[in-house]
Amino acid sequence: MRMSMIEFSYFYFLITKNMAHIFFQLGTNQELSAAEISSVFQTEIEILSGNAFTSLPQQKVRNLFPELGGVMRSGIVLGEEATFEEVSERVIEYCIKKSTIGKKMKIGFHFSNKNGWKKYGIDLQKKLKAAIRDEEFSVRIVNRGPQNLDSYAVPKEKVLEKGNAEFYFIAMQHGWAWGVTKNIQKAYEFANRDMKKPVRDMKVGLMPPKLARMMINLSRNEKGELPDKIYDPFCGMGTILLEGLDLGLKIAGSDLSKKMVDATKKNTTWFYDSQQDYSAGGVLGDDNRQPFFLRDIFVKDATKDFYPDEKKKINNATIVAEGFLGKIFHRPVSEGAYLDQKENLFPLYRQFLFQISKEKIDNIVFGFPFWKAKDEEQNYFSFVDELVVFAKKLGFKQENTALRYIRDGQAVGREIVILRRK
User: Which fold has domain 188-421?
Assistant: First the structure.
């Protein structure tokens, strides 16, 4: 929702002395990222120019930001101005106020609009350097050329450390909002869990770790609390379970394929091992120290009844999963191709939901497939609405409007649905 200057001002001044006006830079899928923020912080947000705004205690944001998957950075909105010339004046004042005599201040700039750097960034650098020429401190602008700092460069350049700053500029319909970044996504950690895990197989498709994290966050309750345990009945390579472990959750997983179960066990064991402190001696496996969760990762057909020992592994867990996405398509599909996929996949998901409805499972966050349509009159094909109708007959209710996630250049995406037991 785009806010006018008046609306933005009103929202800005609703802040109490214990709150700050917070901005979140949303990821590629803004709708999904915004839903994640609302779930984690249990707050209403406004969306503007690829950013979400709300009022929250700074400490709460600092504590919970590392748990987010779909947000690149967050910070504090310090003001709004009618022109960028006025923004430039405020930035210079901020630098002078926060500077330390005899020290160099590292500065970064980030524009939320694509043309910000070309139109305003270069001129701002010149004005800042000219304004502090006679001051008793110096400034180093760390941006490499007229471009924003990415999430790898921000920690490398240490611009979030005390005495430094990354300024964040948000173009609005009738002016500018500006602030300073306080938190940055540790993108390299997501990349490491994705690229360095011992078993990967591009042929079976890989769920992005950030998407897995967002889906887990959507499973939070009305207090913003994560579930104690998550269960992925289509665990594949274990991406969702890896993110669950990183969040400190208990995990369980199953898959029809023993090969996939073995891959999940290897990947989760690798991550568990990487988080342990063996400084006192010993290695993984010594003294029978096996990861506690391995017994809860097992071979299972998700469309079949659960045996008593399997029930114990999944009781009261929250399901976070995506199922088999079907045939890999590199181009939008025809209606005939979609109907072929539906014939194969719809019965699988229907039977899966039926089996789960008989277990002690109250919450489900699930990614069902949808397809880009070749037909110009129809944007996509999906059978999710039919599955939701069936789930309601089984005693569930849909909590959200389905959230779609699809990567650029792909024809098959995920339609994420949250189901709660009535």
Answer: Rossmann fold (3.40.50)
- pTM attached to this predicted model: 0.92
CB 264, CB 235: distance < 8 Å: yes
Confidence (pLDDT) at 7: 44
187: tokens are 């993108």
Q: How far apart are CA 234 and CA 260, in angstroms?
A: 9
Distance CA 129, CA 363 (A): 55
Quote helix, strand, coil % in the chain, to nearest 5: 40, 25, 35
Q: How far is residue 63 CA from its own chain's centroid?
A: 16
Rounded to 5°, the CA angle 143-34-217 comes to 105
Within the chain, all domains assigned CATH 3.40.50.150 are found at: 188-421
Q: What is the DSSP string of 291-360?
A: -TTGGGEEE--TTSPPPHHHHHHHTTPEEEEE----S--SS-B-HHHHHHHHHHHHHHHHHHHHHHHTSS
Look at residues 53, 48, 68, 113 and name the one whose alpha carbon lies nearest to residue 87.
113
Q: 5-185 is classed in which CATH architecture?
A: 2-Layer Sandwich (3.30)
Q: Report DSSP state, residue 400.
A: S
Task: Record the tokens describing residue 112, joined without a space.
Answer: 């939320």
Strand partners, 288: none
Q: Is the dihedral of CA 145, 150, 152, 157 positive or negative?
A: positive
Where does the chain hold its CATH 3.30.2130.30 domain(s)? 5-185
Per-residue pLDDT at 283: 53
The half-sphere exposure of 254 on its side-chain side, counting CA atoms within 13 A, is 19
List of the chain residues with pLDDT < 70: 1-17, 202-205, 277-289
Three-state secondary-structure class, residue 381: strand
